[in-house]
Amino acid sequence: MSKLLSQIRSMLRDRSNCKRVNQVGTATKLTGIIDRRSPGATSNIGSRCLIEVRLVAERAESHIDLADNVLVGGGTVIDCVLSVIVERDVLISYDCIIVDADNHSLLPEKRVGDLEAWMNRGFHDWTDTAMASVRICQGAWIGARSIILKGVTIGAGAVVGMGSVVTRDVPPRTVVAGNPARVIRSVDSPSTEGTSGLVQ
Q1: Of residues 20, 48, 88, 104, which has the active-site annotation?
Q2: DSSP characters for 173-200?
C-alpha cells in the first residue's frame, strides 16, 4: 500500500512540475522542484531525462535548457538568472550547485537592503549583480557535490571530480578536480579508468 501511495505521489508531482516548464520531452521524469520565480522565465527539458534537481528561474530573462538524455541527481540546485544550457547525454550527480550569477553585489552598501526586500516583498534587485551564462557540453559528467560558477563552459566529454569548485572553462575530454578545479589528465590517457574514484 505504501509503495502504491509513493508511486501516486510521484506521478502527481511529475504532472505538477510539467506545468511549470515550457516544454518537456517524452519519457522524462521530473521528480525535483521547479521554482519559476518570474512568469516570463523559460525552461525546456528534453526527452528521456531524469530530473531530480531543484530548478530555479529567477527573472523573466532566465532561460534553462536541458537537452535529451540528461540526468540531474537529487539535492542538486540549478539557479538561473541569465542562462544555463545542458547539452545531451550529460550526467550531473547529487548535491551539486550550478549558478550563473553572484546573486548579490560585491559592494556591502548595495547589499544592505537585499534581505529586507526578499523578506517583505519576495523581490531581489538584480541590477548590480554580476552574471554570465553556464554551458555544460555533450557527454560531460559532473561529480557529486561539485560547484559550477558563472561564466563557465564544461567541454564535451569532460569529467569534473567530486567536490570540485569550477571557476573557469574546462577543456573537452579532460578530467578536472579540486578547489579551484584544475586539469588532472586527459580522458583519453591510459590511466583514465583509475580516476573513477574522483566522481560519483
Answers
A1: 104
A2: TEEEEETTEEEEEETTSTTGGGGGGG--
Residue 104 a catalytic site member: yes
d(CA 142, CA 159): 6
Q: Return the half-sphere exposure (C-beta side, CA atoms, 13 A cut-off) of residue 34.
A: 25
Which H or E run includes 14?
helix 2-18
Averaged pLDDT, 149-168: 98
Query: What domains does the chain contain, in order, with CATH numbers?
Result: 2-103+129-198 (2.160.10.10)
SS3 147: strand
The values of phi and psi at residue 15, to 5°, are -65, -45
| Tens of pLDDT, residues 66-112 | 999 999 999 999 999 999 999 999 999 999 999 999 988 888 888 88
Rounded distance between C-alpha atoms, residue 174 and residue 165, angstroms: 15
Inter-CA distances, 26 with 19, 29, 72, Å: 14, 9, 17
